[in-house]
Amino acid sequence: MNSKILIGIIGLVMILAAFSLKPASETYEIDTQKSFIKWTGYHLAKSYEHNGNISIKSGGLEIENGDLVSGNILIDMTSITNNDLTKEEDNQRLVKDLKSERFFNVAEFPEASLTIKSVVKAGDEYKIDADITIRGITEPLSFTALIKSQGNSFTFHADLEIDRIKHEVMYGWSIENAMLSNKFSLEVELVAEKGD
To answer: How many angstroms separate the Cα of 132 from the Cα of each of 34, 104, 157, 167, 174?
Structure first.
């Protein structure tokens, strides 16, 4: 056999072997009924706050060798609720404000998203770089998440701090806007399960 052909065959075998040894990632689909996002908004100096929930529409986590490597979450902004105001009139007024053009403008931007781009494991925690899109504006976001494996499912917990000004989540240009903190928080709790 020609030595050049032999070398070529050996090289091809080595390349194929390298690919076969590379672990394949698996997609764990987010269970939207078991997962949730809790939002908290603050008045200036966090003198008092409001909070509520937002539903997750869909998403998945990419798992490789038992570790998170990437993921994507689609958030249903039309589902936003308030939990702390017990008077129905006040509750509905706040939710209407949150959905309006002055805040999340859900009529034009019914969805938000979180895309996990890179992950570094540090003990039981994961340092994550992601992109978050709110009101059609995408901004980079870094945070730490706690992820645990439970059989054929993974749980994901992270506390995010969002700069609302960067996403134009503004209370108009009125005095009310000046009385709100520029940051609001999202507590993200995900349950992702391995598909059949």
So the answer is: 22, 14, 16, 10, 26
| pLDDT tens figures, 107-118 | 999 999 999 999
Q: What is the CATH number of the domain that holds 94?
A: 2.40.128.110
Q: Does residue 3 lie within any of the structural domains?
A: no
Domain of residue 29 covers: 24-194
Cα 22-63-132 angle, rounded to 5 deg = 120
7, part of any domain: no
Buried b (16+ CB within 10 A) or exposed e, 12-26: eeeeeeeeeeeeeee
pLDDT-flagged residues of the chain (< 50): 20-22, 175
Task: Give domain status of residue 77, yes or no.
Answer: yes
Number of domains in the chain: 1
Is 19 a domain residue?
no
Long-range Cβ contacts of 136-140 (<8 Å, 24+ apart): 136/108, 136/109, 137/166, 137/167, 137/168, 139/163, 139/166, 139/167
Q: How far apart are CA 30 and CA 113, in angstroms?
A: 14
The predicted pLDDT at position 175 comes to: 47
Cβ contact 190:57 at 8 Å:
no
DSSP state of 78: G
Show the tokens assigned to 13. Answer: 């075998």
